[in-house]
């Protein structure tokens, strides 16, 4: 069952919303209802109610210890050269 809602907004904003609704072949009521649905939609949670950010922070920083001064860029170039047969160009 639908209920009526009265809201007050700036006139220039209302004009823009009317134009947007016309362009998208929808009503202002539908736009407002969709927006409210998105606002109250539950946020996805991981196990134990953790958010994704909390989960990422709980992970160990790295499982591999790389030597100081390890050059990632150089190692990637070497591996790609080996993969595509260009190792003699390095």
TrEMBL record:
Pfam family, one: DUF6364
Protein name: Uncharacterized protein
SUPFAM superfamilies per the UniProt record, alphabetical: Ribbon-helix-helix (SSF47598)
Organism this protein belongs to: Algoriphagus winogradskyi
InterPro entries: DUF6364, Ribbon_hlx_hlx
């Amino acid at each position: 069952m639908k209920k009526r809602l009265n809201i007050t907004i700036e006139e220039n904003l209302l004009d823009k919303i009317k134009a947007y609704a016309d362009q998208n072949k929808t009503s202002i009521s539908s736009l407002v209802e969709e927006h409210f649905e998105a606002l109250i939609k539950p946020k996805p949670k991981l196990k134990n109610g953790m958010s994704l950010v909390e989960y990422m922070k709980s992970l160990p920083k790295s499982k591999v210890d790389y030597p100081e001064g390890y050059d990632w860029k150089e190692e990637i170039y070497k591996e790609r050269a080996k993969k595509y047969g260009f190792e003699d160009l390095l």
